[in-house]
Protein 1
Amino acid sequence: MTRRADVVVIGAGVVGCSLAFYLARAGRSVIVLDRGSIGQGTTAACAGGVRAQFSTEVNIRIGMEAKRKLAAFNREVGRSADFRAVGYLFLLTTAEERDQFAEAVRLQRRLGVDDVVELSPGQAVALVPGLRWDDLSGATYCPSDGLAGPNEVTMGYAEAARRHGALIEEGAPVTALSRRAGLVSGVETSNESIDAEQIVICAGPWTAEVGSLAGLTLPVSPSRRHAFVTQPFSAVSRRSPMTIDFHTSFYFHPEGDGLLFGMGDAEQPESGEAVMDWSVLERIIPRAAERWPPLLEAQVKSGWAGLYENTPDSQPLVGPLGDGLWVAAGFSGHGFMMGPVIGDWLAQWMTEGATPVDLRSFRPDRFSRGQSVPEHHVV
């Protein structure tokens, strides 16, 4: 059996569902295929942060727009995004980190992030009591940054896309990309073939695998990350900021009546499997105790593993691959916060030929062109 659509989107995470909504709203017929379930891949395991505190102009602009979109999510999409502007607090240890973030703050303010500020270590402690601050060189804080619900946002886009006629099919892994007259003309699953004018790879950590079906080598590699949630914990309130110790990447934020925390782990091998490794907790606790001793009083309730989709410069691949094939992947931990905006802007690019903000720094061929502009504020 062969069906037809204007666009086939491969991947039903937040990026794929956002793109499907904006394309369908623009009048395109859209089919989304996912090897698993809606939002249950990388999106389900993310920490839910949304910020404009980046080091590159394009990411700052995306962060600003993402906050606007999530604050108005119910009006545009039809349900709450559970967006809470609790703020983002970056803790800095070295003089180099302080200078790098100070330069970024100047750029952020020049672009319109009016509420971002530099703080002294003492001012940071006033926001998060119990912080060890004697070794800090400084901090930055943006109160309009915050948290949103990964499930709420992804399912909101999926439901809205369906209302506009999009089809989202779960348990439907793509097994091949078909060609006609040298152009990518459709996809194949184990059950059917679907012809399409355009195909977009939004497959997160599995992007390189899907790209190989078209004979492409896409520089996206998966790495495993872990997050943990505590029992109800009085040392943090629901209005406490997302707090990040940039030097170690230890972070924590309120989650319900408890706390969600995690940290990057250099000992984790490159892996496309989100298998839980509880030994990670043993490596996080000493670093966490050095920065925020109250965490030692908390009881861990649950934990999970998820996957980052990394590129060499920590910037996504967004744009045409040629022959009717597009990509929006490789967000290096920023897919949830960027997904609402990238879905909208990429849909405009595909339907109108241009984006509101220049995305050339995301072009998939930038590495071969020597045009990479890395993002430095990566956790």
Protein 2
Amino acid sequence: MSKIVLGLVGPMASGKGAMKKYIEEKYGGRDCRFSTVLREVLDRVGEPINRENMQKISTVLRQTFGEDLLAKVIVKDAGMIDSNIVIVDGVRREADIKYLKELENFYLIAINASPEVRYNRMIERNENVGDKDKTLEQFMTDQQAEADREIPQVMKKADFTIDNSGGWDNFYAQIDVIIKKLTDK
């Protein structure tokens, strides 16, 4: 089987990370995330790793070096990963998929859930500084930020769509169907 590259796109807390973890554990997939580069830069310069700072550094890098800068890094990283399945977490812009589409066996998967379900997940996981203190209104406002504005448009270009509003069994079953389709080719 040749390498399959799965790009995951979806709004905040829709289940991209959970899908990545499931594919890693069940199918031996390996991941690369757009946010990894941003987190590394913030860590190196001693700034808090939070959503606001990641958006700022992303904007500065893309405005300075081109909208497709992070996509170029991800394509290079994905190509170097030694695994039959590579998961690219955090696709959010048209520029992100421009180069990924050039990879053989690249598939874009959209993941979504209701805003209330996603909000509760964000509070529970508390991944970034300040997440647990946000209101639902602040959560919804965050999704209008520059970094997330293109997500709905990119989701429309997906090869597969997963509804993650239900329980784990339903979520995993949808993932298994997609992986089976792709590995049986």
Protein 3
Amino acid sequence: MGTLLLGLILGMRHATDPDHVLAISTMISRNPRLGRALRTGVVWGVGHTLTVLVVGVLMVLYGVTVPPRAVAAMDLIVAIMLVCLGAVSLRARIASPNDTPTIAEGIVISPVRPFVVGIIHGLAGSAGLTLFALTTIPSRAGALAYLGLFGVGTVLGMILVTAGIAFPLKYAGKVSIRLPGLVSRAAGLLSVIAGIAFAVLGLGLARP
């Protein structure tokens, strides 16, 4: 039970990885409506969990291993993705409190984007370490249960992350009309910078 509880807690902690927070920030800061932000977080979590579950099940049931180079390649893809998400956020239109409901509702992110981003994140960063940890659990049933709870924890963690970002932004717009836009631009810029830094670091570590 302790191991299973650890899987749930690690899943929630995994959702707070810097690259995850930056990626989700660029997507929800354009229109920080709480309901839509939470749905974006859930979709991201489902995509992320799907990748981890598929690879984890293959590892537990069939002994498949993930080569270190594959994990390094996924980290590089995540870095490129962060740059792209940041660039889109810097150019995108921001929802304003003065917008009519119809216009504000139109400034949304397609569910496909957070789902794909979640899938890509599934093999990068600490998710790869989590998959490696499965090899230390002797029972297949225990390993699969751990894997499932890690996925549940990741979804719950991302729901909390998106709520923590969207809720303050919602009220920031009432204080200053320009503030949510500035936050969105800052998130985009940080995402670009982080993506470049991660790519440079990843390429440096990949060198023999």
Protein 4
Amino acid sequence: MEDIVYSLVKTRVDRDVDFDTQGFKREQVFHALENFFGKDRVLHVATFGTEKAKKAVATAARGLGITDDVSSYLSGLIVNERGFDRTLKDTIYGNKDKGFPINGEFVAEINKYPHYAETALSIEGLISSIGSHASAVYIFNHEYTDINAMMKTSNGLEITQWDYRDSDEMGALKMDMLSVEALDKIRETMNLLIKDDRMEWQGSLKETYRKYLHPDNLDYSTDLWKPTWTNEVLDVFQLDTTVNL
């Protein structure tokens, strides 16, 4: 039996549920999940921040009494490629597999200060902060204490004590409540049109949307799109700049 369970865990594919929600109703949706499943069966997903290369350089400097000017200069020497900083290990020792040479200028500067390099290297990668995932929550079959644990962020938000990888392995179901700005716009459009008697409420949000705004019922003639290229409409779906308009 243990072999079968182990095999299932090893071959398990990632499972989660994604659904879109209006941004300003995100908290309302979360509380609805709590009310439906039970408060002790729903938790926000924990995220953990780590000390990256530049932050480790700054933290080590403060601990060793090295000035901010020095740590700022060293941080500027760390190579950034495509938005990502090289690690301190790759900076100091190079990385043949990735084609990274030793950063001689960085090494020469950091070695002017005793224990600076080794301290920064030991700090890099350490967990230094916790937070909550922007959209994900976990739903549990039973009380979350059966397979997980709860802790709180600095503002009191209840989150898992494990990250999503470990929580997934223990069998929790992740639900991604994706806040979509377009949904806020659609809902506000409906509210305004109903208020101005341009639409008639059909008894439910779903039926009102289906009758007036469902793609199958829209008029796709040139007149529909003309206000976008004449800048009469400044924000259409994700086109909220002059690019492509």
